[in-house]
Amino acid sequence: MAERIIVFDTTLRDGEQSPGASMNKAEKLRLARQLEKLKVDVIEAGFPVASQGDFEAVALIAKEVRGLTVTALSRTEKTDIDRAWEAVKEGANPRLHIFIATSDLHLKYKLKKSRKEVLEIINKSVSYASRYTSNIEFSAEDGSRTDPNFLVQAVRAAVKAGATTINIPDTVGYALPEELGERIRFVREQVEADDRVVWSVHCHNDLGLAVANSLSAIQNGARQVEVTINGIGERAGNTSLEELVMALHTRKDLMPFTTGIETKQIYHTSRLVSRITGLVVPANKAVVGANAFAHESGIHQDGVLKKRTTYEIMTPKDVGLDQSVLVLGKHSGRHAFQDRLKELGYVLNPEDLKKVFERFKELADKKKEVVNEDIEALIADEILMIPDTYKLVYISVISGNMAVPTATVQIEINGEIIQKAGFGVGPIDATFNTINKIIKTCTKVCNLVSFSVNAITGGTDAQGQVTVRIQQGSKVILGKGSDSDIITASAKAYLNALNRLDYLKKNPIKSWS
Amino acid sequence: MAERIIVFDTTLRDGEQSPGASMNKAEKLRLARQLEKLKVDVIEAGFPVASQGDFEAVALIAKEVRGLTVTALSRTEKTDIDRAWEAVKEGANPRLHIFIATSDLHLKYKLKKSRKEVLEIINKSVSYASRYTSNIEFSAEDGSRTDPNFLVQAVRAAVKAGATTINIPDTVGYALPEELGERIRFVREQVEADDRVVWSVHCHNDLGLAVANSLSAIQNGARQVEVTINGIGERAGNTSLEELVMALHTRKDLMPFTTGIETKQIYHTSRLVSRITGLVVPANKAVVGANAFAHESGIHQDGVLKKRTTYEIMTPKDVGLDQSVLVLGKHSGRHAFQDRLKELGYVLNPEDLKKVFERFKELADKKKEVVNEDIEALIADEILMIPDTYKLVYISVISGNMAVPTATVQIEINGEIIQKAGFGVGPIDATFNTINKIIKTCTKVCNLVSFSVNAITGGTDAQGQVTVRIQQGSKVILGKGSDSDIITASAKAYLNALNRLDYLKKNPIKSWS
User: Fold this and answer.
1) Interface contact flag, A451 B428, Cβ < 8 Å
2) Do A176 and B330 touch (CB under 8 A)?
3) Which residues of chain A lie closer than 8 angstroms to B142, CB-CB?
4) DSSP E strands, B204-307
């Protein structure tokens, strides 16, 4: 039977050490609740002695999140251990996690202590902790660069003093898979404590090897892995939960291990961590990146359309995503393009299809990625040749700290010029409100889905680019405008979208509803 | 002696297949020139039959970039091979790269061909290609999921027909390190062509194992690795060049292999690819991410200050970066904080230091990351208690498509209200010009370094947040402002910065210059 691996999530502790990723108490609690849904076994909620905020967050999580083990990190000092215990003690199954460095490099330059002193410290601190609980994890910091024989001594001291989980961290992301696996096996065999302790591994990704190192450790006897969501953490980060779990899941044939993870919660958890920490998930991140299930080349798209498994080893649904994406770009073939048109509700005659496909290829040669709205804009402009029903004649906006932002707009509709004035909380809001007054279309039948001003960086005289998306029924229509005046650019973008909407309502294409 | 590994960069071909990463001809040439500086051995410049743009880019690169091998991808069709050769033939050392899938899954669903047919196709296409050149690479697509015995047959056919490089791709990122290593070894041993061919591997990162798989292949006889800068590519991307190269470099002790890569060009190349493709390098990306050499926790910072190697296994200089970064955040200790103050030119008395450090810890508990300008603002506000010399009394701005953007601004300076009007190319430009007219400080002695409006996404009534940075001498001063009116927010931010500048000029701190 497949052996169970304990998933120890340290997004809230090591993950939070990603520069820029600090989270506040409320954010940490929210994430801890999501980790409970994801069904991790252990949450390392923080390092209570580091700050008052950290202490409070750990205490709150221990009290509120009951379905798993909550642990807190602690140095070997009594005050650290007291503080950590104070924070976790209300937990359903609290654990103390004590660490000290064991490599000669760290002993000499950082701790300035002898091996003998370190062994004594381990003995004392773990013994002290065991007055509080028998659920004690001990980590030998920089374990992958520690003399293996001294590592054995350190671990023996920890086990003797009462540690029940022994963690061998690759603190600096230096190990190679085979090397780390052998080390875990060596220490396990030397310490001879297999029935009493759970062996754990904690890897960093400095050489891109965190997942491989963790898997190798598991294959050599580790039964706990320390991971973070999205692989965030100090420097290049930690082993990413999603990659490790999906590797075990996908390659059950060679690795007979299971985890308790609810894989369908992976995608949602990844997005939550990204939103809270502000750390963007790169498009090409394995498992959870925007492109992880996106196929760009014509050959791959063709393959996936014929049989998904030709280019997909796991399904997006496994991780809680609805579907994979065939991204249209210059490498896309006619097959995928026609497929997309059909999805969008366009059925073109062969001649028009040829024309649009050529224009699409030209566009794709210039532009990074062709999205659905681009295709609709392309069909609108190139094939349907949409006339501008609404033309911006005049716009003037007043704003300031004493003025009520006011817009005066003239729009020409079928040769007639209509003029209105309107207000808003800011100048752009005033402009859109006034346009809505003139053109009744939008207020009644559609929603403004999104409005974005491209971040302007550089001089104040840079061109402002505005994109709006409005929605009618299930259709989303794109509008773009640019002008050195950001307010005028916004007005242009909004009218651009309204013109498309108007045309499509008057000239319904097959299956447009 | 360390054996030499051939680095085959496919950023321009597989990398370009990252959804959203399409590059135009000029961008491709620029990148190819940088890859030459980085000293990769082979560039796969594109897939000429895919589009006219691709063809032209490959031809241009082959002609212009002479210090390495330029290759182009091709299916097994004669027209593909002709087109690929047409594109690369002017190269200094052109190579043809022909591929066909060999796994039963691909044969059945995608190619709809029998194994026998595929063997014939391999023989025919490689033989046809060898009329053009003897520098032929053959790839057995989905090689990691191909029946090993059929893989041997396919490779034998390719070698017999004239292929000189044999590539075994893990097309879908499915392999485990040991498994892929064994496969490479098995095929090599069965084919018995070691003196005639170079063995190559091409891995994808779907399970986070691309680097480990490539290293395992090398340890089992592969002498060419196919990689991309930043690991971009289809789905989760390819093996990243920087991780693979730095792993070999850092772990020479266990892996006796070298590459020709000029590691000091790595960082620059990574940034170039990011700028060209628009694909952001995540902060926690190994080797080239913003945090790869950043240390956040107090313990790590303390260690690095004492001895760099305690927490760094390679130096930032190795990859072309100037220095590692100690990021100040809630985990930072007093030591690192004081160090930073000194760097910034502040020497505070113990009492003030205590006060600032406490405020800093409070700020760090709330804020993601504390940057230098935050610290200066904190010292200014909390310790120096800067009064507002310039107060915004009134602002009114008119803009529109017919109006010359005009701002009227009143600012109170020492109890006196000064009022001016001014113009600009847009409303924000007009506002800043007018403020400059009133306050002469900035136009003479300082530069506007950056101006950024946070991308507004959501409703048009969202709060606008504006950040400006102005520079005097070597000092950069930050200003922030927010308001539901984006123009007013800009004015507030600019005045905020000017107030700080004014104070610091009147009250020079030690070493302020």
Assistant:
1) no
2) no
3) 310
4) 224-227, 257-258, 294-295
- Rounded Cα distance between B298 and A103, Å, is 19
Neighbouring-strand partners of residue B497 = none
Given A75, A427, A456, which is nearest B451 (Cβ)? A456
The residue among A241, A369, A398, A399 with the most chain B CBs within 10 A of its CB, best to mutate, is: A399
Nearest CA in chain A to B485: A426
Residue ranges with strand state E in B180-272: 198-203, 224-227, 257-258
Which residues lie below 8 Å from residue B377, measured CB to CB, with a gap of 6+? B478, B500
Contact (CB<8Å) B330/A451: no
In chain B, which residues have their Cβ closer than 8 Å to the Cβ of A53?
Answer: 330, 365
Q: Would the CA dihedral through B190, B192, B194, B199 be positive or negative?
A: negative
CA trace torsion A248, A250, A251, A253 (10° rounding) = 120
Q: Classify residue A112 as left (phi > 0), alpha (psi -120 to 50) or beta.
A: left
Ranges A286-295, A371-380, B40-49, most confident: B40-49
- Please give the distance of CA B427 from its chain centroid, rounded to a whole number: 35
The complex scores an ipTM of 0.70
Q: Most confidently modeled of A334-343, B16-25, B260-269, B342-351?
A: B260-269
CB contact under 8 A, A310 and B142: yes
Residues 6 or more apart whose CB falls under 8 angstroms from that of B436 comprise B422, B442, B443
CB count in 10 Å sphere of residue A339: 16
Placement of tokens 């654990």 in the chain: A95
* Lookup: tokens for B365: 């508990």
Calculate the average pLDDT of chain B. Answer: 86
Question: If you measure CA to CA, which chain B residue comes closest to A111?
Answer: B303
Where in B401-443 does DSSP place strands (E)? Answer: 406-413, 416-423
A115-129 vs A148-161: helix axis angle to the nearest 10? Answer: 30
Contacts of B181 in chain A (CB under 8 A): none
Token pair for residue A225? 């892995």
Q: Please, which residues have CB within 8 angstroms of residue A356's CB and are 6 or more apart in sequence?
A: A341, A348, A378, A379, A382, A383
Say if residues A7 and A253 touch (Cβ distance below 8 Å): no
Helix (H) or strand (E) holding B436, with range, is helix B427-438
A418, two tokens:
């209509």
Residues of B in contact with A172 (CB under 8 A): 311-313
Q: Write the DSSP string, A176-226.
A: -HHHHHHHHHHHHHHH--TTT-EEEEEEB-TTS-HHHHHHHHHHTT--EEE
Mutation for B interface: A485, A488, A490, A494, most B CBs within 10 A:
A485
Single-letter code of the amino acid located at A4: R
The pLDDT value recorded for residue A457 is 47
A288-303 average pLDDT score: 80
Nearest to B284 among A232, A284, A290 (CB): A232
Tell me which of B144, B235, B408 to substitute to probe the interface with A (most A C-beta atoms closer than 10 Å): B235
Q: B262-280 pLDDT, tens per residue?
A: 999 998 899 888 877 767 7
Q: How high is the pLDDT of residue A314?
A: 85
The pTM (predicted TM-score) of the whole model is 0.72
Look-up: residue for tokens 């650019």?
Answer: A489
Matching residue, tokens 């492109």: A291
| HSE-CB of A272 using CA atoms within 13 angstroms | 20
Q: Do A396 and B405 touch (CB under 8 A)?
A: no
| Helix A298-306 vs helix A334-344: crossing angle, to nearest 10 | 60
Q: Please report the pLDDT score of residue B277 as a whole number.
A: 78
The predicted structure's pLDDT at residue B85: 98
Q: Is the pLDDT of residue B465 over 70?
A: no
- Residue A211: which of B207, B298, B331 has the nearest Cβ? B207
